[in-house]
Design a protein that fits this description.
Blueprint lengths: L7 H8 L4 E4 L5 E6 L15 H12 L4 E5 L5 E5 L6
Antiparallel strand pairs: 1-2, 3-4
């Protein structure tokens, strides 16, 4: 999509689409319906589901990211990169 500044109505509409909404730190939207992915590893929780675990996987490769995960049960988790403890 052409990058744009989202409004409440566009976020509500985009939220109805399965997948993620990619917004940079300046608030510009760069993608709707995106799929986050990465290799399985530490920090995942099988009880949390695919959306949460995909966010954790994505953060390993893109640690500068900030991700809000909205689950089907309407819970919201904000996840950021946390390095594994040694």
């Amino acid at each position: 999509i052409k990058p744009f500044t989202p409004t409440e109505p566009t976020i509500v509409a985009a939220s109805a689409i399965d997948g993620g909404i990619l917004v940079d730190l300046e608030g510009t939207c760069h993608g709707i319906g995106i799929i986050l992915d990465g290799e399985a590893g530490d920090g995942e929780n099988t009880a949390r589901g695919a959306r949460y675990n995909s966010a954790i996987r994505y953060l390993r490769k893109h640690p500068e990211s900030f991700i809000a995960v909205v689950s089907e049960d309407k819970t919201v988790d904000v996840v950021t990169y946390t390095p594994a403890a040694n």
